[in-house]
Amino acid sequence: MSNQTYNFKDTNFLVKSSAIAAIYAVITLIYPALAYGPIQLRFSEILVLLVFYNKRFIPGLVLGCFLANLASDMVVFDLIFGTLASYLAFSLIRKQNNLFIASLFPVLFMFIPAIGTYILLDSSTAFFIILIQFMISEFIVVSIIGVIIFKILEKNEGLMKIIKNF
């Protein structure tokens, strides 16, 4: 894992972070019916595992999540709660030494967007239903599909060198 820090004055870092943000947002927006709603198979979430290898992906992924949430029907709630959940998950992913365990943090932090839904609907029943749907969706995308993809990618030394030196 990289020990590099963020340098927001570094044009190269800003361009890379912007590219990651755009990739995240575009992947989300390609399948909006899957990305928004109670069952969120947001395939862009696979990218969150990049943080496991290098924390310098965090700013771009946070921005990408924020931009993608602008297209949500619940834009205010998703901007606040969804982006916060991502940021908090990233802060724990970067400290983890096991990819699968790291993949569980985005799943666990789905309680935050579920709280946003609870505030909107004022229903504890809706909270638990939405929470379970969000967590299962996130688990499928990040902890199953994402971990499998990154375990395959780990075998490509050249790609991993690029990721670790981002």
TrEMBL record:
Q: Which residues cross the membrane?
A: 13-34, 75-93, 100-121, 127-153
Q: Which UniProt keywords apply?
A: Membrane, Transmembrane, Transmembrane helix
Q: Which domain of life is it from?
A: Bacteria
What single Pfam family name could you report for this chain, choosing any that match?
A: QueT
PANTHER family per the UniProt record, alphabetical: INTEGRAL MEMBRANE PROTEIN (PTHR40044:SF1), INTEGRAL MEMBRANE PROTEIN-RELATED (PTHR40044)
Q: What is this protein called?
A: QueT transporter family protein
Q: Which organism is it from?
A: Anaerococcus porci
